[in-house]
Amino acid sequence: MAFPPKRIAVFGASGALGAAFTKACLDRYESATVFCFARSLERIPAYKRTQHYSLGLEDNLMQTSAGAIKAQGGLDIIFVATGQLHSPTTQPEKTIRFLSATAMEETFLANSILPALIMKHYLPLLPRHNKGVFAAISARVGSISDNFLGGWYSYRASKAALNMLIRCAAIEMQRTHEKSVVIGLHPGTVDSALSKPFQRNIPEQQLLTPSKSAVMMLDIIESCNQSQSGKCFAYDRTEISP
Question: Where in the chain are the domains?
Fold first, then answer.
């Protein structure tokens, strides 16, 4: 990657992590433009050197924004901060008895399908012969080998699916973008709306602010190399097993 990177896309820029990552990039790279994607554009923080785009599952919507960004020179970093653990109508399932098709579909749309479609349309915008990084927010609980507690069926399965999508995309990108890096990132337990209902038993020192988590993940994006493509890393740089 040519540093400082010139063009960065942040998907889910209206959320706690997406907004913090946008701010971290603007603070670190003084000449960078950040393309901010969100479902609700009015919720994206009004930072300078940003462009705002609507985020949705429609191919034509993504094609239009990808074309506009390609015309400006493509992308150096793609950061996907979208995701769902719970919603007003869904909660993580403590037992298999609580599974429902509707809730599972909602969770997979947010955690697996949307990132996959982002890969489809925006991975080709990374440099062909220089380092470019795609990083998506995954989760340690998406690790099959690290699952000793069970539960949270839809969330675990959707993040495991995302990890497989990342691995597949990393292999394919090696054929056309030889220095590309496609990785998953576990942000830690971040003090945000996503984790708020589940913070009760978390020691205060283990709860990260969105800004601290964002900076640590940006450090990983800067330092990672092609040999690490297809893997998933925690905010503290430890590799998470599949």
Answer: 7-240
Confidence grade of residue 88 (pLDDT, cut at 50, 70, 90): confident
Per-residue tokens: 42: 């009015």
Residue 166, CA atoms < 13 Å, CB-side half-sphere: 31
Tokens for 44? 């994206």
CA–CA dist 164, 143 (Å, integer): 11
pTM: 0.93
pLDDT tops 80 at residue 19: yes
Query: What are the tokens at 83?
Result: 């995701």
145 to 156, 240, 242: CA distances (angstroms): 12, 9, 6
User: Binning pLDDT at 50, 70 and 90, where does residue 2 land?
Assistant: low
Distance CA 175, CA 76 (A): 18
Contacts of 193 (CB under 8 A, 6+ apart): 15, 16
Q: What is the token pair recorded at 212? A: 């601290």
Using the predicted structure, report yes or no on whether residue 196 has a pLDDT greater than 80. Answer: no
pLDDT digits (tens, 9 = 90+) for 109-167: 999 999 999 999 999 999 999 999 999 999 999 999 999 999 999 999 999 999 999 99
Phi-psi region of 152 (alpha: psi -120 to 50; beta: other; left: phi over 0): left
Pick one of 3.40.50.720, 3.10.20.600, 3.40.190.10, 3.40.50.300 as the CATH number of 7-240.
Answer: 3.40.50.720
C-alpha–C-alpha distance, residues 229 and 131, integer Å: 11
- Which residues are within 8 A (CB) of 170 and not within 5 positions of it... i.e. 6 or more apart? 180, 181, 182, 183, 229, 230
